[in-house]
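Please, structure for the following, as tokens.
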Amino acid sequence: MDTKTTTEKTGENADAAGTAEAAAPVEEKAAVALGKQDAEPATAPAAADELAATDELADEDDELFAEASAPSSAGIGGAAAAVVSAALGAVALTGTWTGKVVSERETLLGQIKTSGSGTPAQQISEIYGDAWHSTALVNGVFALIALLVAVLVLVLPGRPAWVRSVAVAGAVLGGLGLLLSVGTYFDLFLSLPTAGS
């Protein structure tokens, strides 16, 4: 009986050990599965944080791109306007092709008007004076446009320093050209010659 009990107990122990061995892989699989489940929630917030950080970086990149592209397009217009104002100011001082054409037209009209019966004073006034005043008027218009464009560039905010410098140069040239044109038109610097001189 003792041997039977021992054998039965040994058999029970063997069955229990077999069952324990069989249960061990199942428990390990369950533990591994549970470990994966536990690990997934731990990595899911990390992945969500990484995704949120990536979205924030993408948003910042978009904002930087928008900020970089908007002022450049606006800056091109301001720079072009500043250069145009400086060029118009220089043209107002040196004279334009338009001014030359208007001057020659006034000279021709003066010759036609005084061709046969004009006095020397009339000839001077009609042929030379009107042409001189017409040239001054055209140059004054160019100078005024240069001055207005330069002031517009200087008034608008957010312009780079070199654009403002060119605009200041355009304003100075335009102002100087306007002053000379007004003086020439009203004979302030040089008067028309008289017939007796």
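Residues 133 and 186 are 8 Å apart (CA to CA). Helices lie at 2-94, 97-113, 120-155, 161-185.
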